[in-house]
Design the sequence.
């Protein structure tokens, strides 16, 4: 089996039940955690998200909403803003789009993951957590098609299993894990022990 290059970015998508899942996953990460993480939680349009504030209160890592054309930096947690698609371009800078919603969502997990897969290829790891629609299934397939690592929360462990189930049905992920097992895997990725 061909080994993957070291992971350079982690993208995480979640919807219903996602705040608790993100807190459980990210709170244990130490301040020395080296990889950048982009977290996208489905948001209501035209409502300021409190996710960044909630995470910043609990995480050891710096948390903020990225600006257009801002470069991705190691050791930061980025949180998608409401009512815009978040993309990562080939130069590994963030970009925004007001294209129509995808899977009824803007920001869309599919849009973020597909753009990140184009930018990072096999150096990308995608994580899909609890959620109530199909968003993320195509994005995870795009990551897998470009050689990246795909991790899906076990539907039986998710508050709402629809999103993980859709991703599993679309393309068999590399790992299907309960939330408690995903965190240690993220630590392994940062240590350069990438998983098959």
Sequence:
């Amino acid at each position: 089996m061909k080994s993957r290059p070291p992971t350079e970015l982690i993208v995480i998508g979640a919807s219903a039940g996602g705040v608790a899942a993100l807190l459980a996953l990210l709170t244990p990460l130490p301040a020395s955690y080296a990889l950048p993480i982009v977290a996208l939680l489905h948001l209501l349009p035209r409502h300021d998200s409190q996710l960044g504030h909630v995470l910043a209160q609990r995480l050891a890592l710096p948390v903020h909403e990225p600006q257009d054309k801002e470069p991705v930096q190691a050791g930061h947690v980025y949180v998608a803003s409401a009512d815009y698609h978040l993309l990562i371009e080939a130069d590994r800078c963030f970009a925004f789009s007001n294209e129509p919603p995808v899977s009824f969502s803007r920001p869309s997990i599919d849009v973020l993951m597909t753009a990140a897969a184009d930018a990072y290829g096999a150096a990308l790891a995608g994580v899909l957590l609890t959620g109530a629609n199909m968003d993320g299934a195509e994005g995870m397939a795009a990551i897998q098609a470009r050689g990246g690592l795909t991790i899906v929360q076990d539907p039986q462990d998710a508050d709402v299993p629809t999103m993980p189930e859709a991703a599993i049905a679309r393309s068999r992920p590399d790992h299907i894990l309960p939330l408690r097992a995903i965190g240690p895997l993220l630590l392994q990725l940062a240590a350069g022990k990438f998983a098959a």
Observations:
- The first strand starts at residue 9 and ends at 14.
- The helical segments are 18-26, 51-58, 109-120, 137-145, 162-170, 179-190.
